[in-house]
Design goal:
By secondary structure, the chain is an alpha+beta fold. About 65% of the residues lie in helices and about 10% in strands. A hairpin with a 5-residue loop joins strand 3 and strand 4.
């Protein structure tokens, strides 16, 4: 009789701990620990019931509640642990993106600097020097060749040069430049900000 009372008390404990585990599941650390304890007690009670060939709904209910409470607390605990890690990863990724963007801007600035010093109104001698600069650039960096246009009908706001400009074409433009005239130099860029088009227009 005393043994039956102990066994029934164990079954009741299994059910009570299962309920507590479910209620406290929303509290990450506490719920997780209680969930483990409830799950262990419920499994032991379930095995004891089967060993004694008994039928007790409290044991089954306690085991089910313990499992549910444990799973919920486990998910919440994992989420709360992973959240700072994910936040740190997102922050570092954003920081790296900003650094890469700044680095790219610096590269673009360095690339464009030698051409941008000719921007605006220039005399013929400076324009001839610009022609030589573009010709050498296109020979040494054909993957980023610059289109040189004399007296353009319009100045594009965006330009992607897919065709290399021949040295002969640039030399012909240079021959047409008069050292006694003034010219306006304008630029167009690609999507990354690199100069891809230079217009040379004689001013009146």
């Amino acid at each position: 009789m005393e043994q039956d009372k102990k066994t029934n008390g164990f079954y009741v404990a299994s059910l009570v701990l299962g309920i507590i585990a479910l209620v406290l599941a929303i509290f990450p650390l506490v719920g997780f620990i209680i969930g483990i304890i409830a799950l262990v007690i419920s499994i032991v009670a379930f095995r004891k019931r089967n060993k004694n060939n008994e039928k007790n709904a409290m044991v089954t209910a306690g085991l089910v509640l313990s499992i549910i409470g444990f799973i919920i607390s486990l998910i919440i605990t994992i989420f709360l642990v992973a959240l700072p890690v994910m936040g740190f990863y997102v922050f570092k990724n954003a920081e790296s993106t900003v650094e890469n963007h700044n680095l790219n801007n610096e590269l673009v600035h360095v690339y464009n600097a030698s051409f941008e010093e000719y921007e605006g109104i220039q005399n013929g001698s400076s324009v001839k020097a610009l022609c030589d600069l573009v010709r050498v650039h296109n020979l040494t960096t054909p993957e980023r060749s610059i289109k040189l246009v004399k007296d353009p009908t319009y100045v594009p706001s965006y330009y992607t040069n897919i065709n290399n400009v021949s040295s002969n074409e640039i030399m012909e433009i240079k021959k047409d430049i008069s050292v006694v005239e003034k010219y306006e130099i304008t630029f167009a860029h690609d999507s990354e900000g690199y100069i891809t088009w230079i217009g040379i227009e004689e001013t009146n």
